[in-house]
């Protein structure tokens, strides 16, 4: 397989990547045939996967606009993935040119592309780090140089926690990040779940098995399990709901049924 010029030499382009599969679902071009093959295999079981990803992105943009309207000027996007149109810094800085955005990802392709996209943007940066090691993020020079943790921050955990296994204690990681944030900060979160998927569970499990096969298990949690990530936060109306139902721009009933797979919510620290 020929290595594209944009692919860092350090990555194994024969192994599928979750962030590059996500890029493929969204119609991006920074993915390899191995990613497309895995994504197409998952779509054999769950053909609405691109609709779910689009609903994730649409919720993220609505939640970011809400945060800006609430006076938040600092954004920490963990598991940010490969930059696509309408990314956080574009939405935020269009509303407030002085706003600051730090992207965090452990995928080398995502980090390399973020660096390229953000070149010359003094209000945004990217750091290579892992959600499972919050101190690496909080102590990074990139964060210290861009984000003031004494002022409110919008913490984005969009479509990332369902790739953290229970053995890695995602609840502790989210709590550690919460405890580092100033009062008035926001948690913006989406998470996959079997609840809401317009398929029999055994059919949806076929897609989950594809992620298990590529050693990136997709952990489908219940609504109650997802709600636990908001401990220490006051939920913003309308609470933890299917993505199209969170402060929609258009009538939710017009959405594709797959868009209602999983949950989204925003919480505020006291």
Describe the protein's architecture and organization:
- Strand 4 (154-158), helix 8 (170-179) and strand 5 (186-191) form a beta-alpha-beta unit.
- Helix 1 (18-25) crosses helix 2, helix 2 runs antiparallel to helix 9 and helix 3 (49-69) runs parallel beside helix 4 (88-95).
- The chain is built from ten helices and seven strands.
- It is of the alpha/beta class and 270 residues long.
- The chain has helices at residues 18-25, 33-45, 49-69, 88-95, 108-118, 134-138, 141-146, 170-179, 201-213, 223-227, and strands at residues 74-78, 100-105, 124-128, 154-158, 186-191, 233-235, 263-269.
- A seven-stranded mixed sheet has the order 3-2-1-4-5-7-6.
- The termini are far apart.
Q: What does the secondary structure layout of this molecule look like, with pairings?
A:
Blueprint (H helix, E strand, L loop, with lengths): L17 H8 L7 H13 L3 H21 L4 E5 L9 H8 L4 E6 L2 H11 L5 E5 L5 H5 L2 H6 L7 E5 L11 H10 L6 E6 L9 H13 L9 H5 L5 E3 L27 E7 L1
Parallel strand pairs: 1-2, 1-4, 2-3, 4-5
Antiparallel strand pairs: 5-7, 6-7
**What share of residues is helical?**
25-40%
Oligomeric nature of the chains: single chain
Order of helices and strands: HHHEHEHEHHEHEHHEE
Number of strands: 7
Q: What general outline do the C-alpha atoms trace?
A: globular
Strand order of the largest sheet: 3-2-1-4-5-7-6
What percent of residues are in strands?
Answer: 5-15%
Rounded to the nearest angstrom, the radius of gyration is 18 Å
Mean of pLDDT: 93
């Amino acid at each position: 397989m020929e290595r594209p010029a944009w692919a860092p030499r350090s990555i194994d382009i024969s192994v599928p990547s979750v962030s590059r599969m996500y890029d493929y679902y969204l119609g991006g071009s920074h993915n390899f045939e191995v990613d497309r093959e895995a994504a197409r295999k998952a779509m054999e079981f769950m053909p609405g996967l691109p609709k779910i990803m689009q609903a994730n992105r649409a919720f993220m943009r609505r939640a970011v606009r809400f945060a800006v309207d609430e006076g938040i000027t600092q954004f920490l996007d963990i598991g940010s993935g490969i930059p696509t149109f309408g990314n956080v810094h574009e939405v935020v800085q269009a509303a407030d040119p002085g706003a600051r955005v730090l992207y965090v990802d452990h995928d080398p392709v995502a980090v390399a592309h973020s660096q390229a996209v953000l070149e010359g943007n003094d209000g945004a940066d990217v750091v290579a780090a892992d959600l499972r090691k919050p101190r690496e993020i909080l102590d990074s020079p990139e964060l210290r140089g861009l984000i003031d943790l004494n002022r409110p921050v919008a913490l984005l955990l969009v479509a990332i926690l369902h790739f953290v296994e229970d053995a890695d204690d995602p609840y502790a990681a989210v709590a550690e990040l919460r405890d580092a944030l100033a009062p008035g900060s926001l948690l913006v979160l989406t998470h996959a779940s079997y609840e809401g998927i317009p398929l029999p569970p055994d059919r949806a499990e076929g897609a989950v098995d594809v992620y298990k096969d590529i050693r990136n298990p997709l952990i489908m949690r219940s609504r109650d399990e997802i709600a636990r990530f908001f401990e220490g936060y006051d939920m913003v109306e309308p609470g933890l709901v299917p993505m199209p139902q969170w402060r929609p721009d258009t009538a939710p009933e017009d959405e594709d049924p797959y868009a209602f797979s999983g949950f989204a919510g925003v919480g505020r620290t006291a």
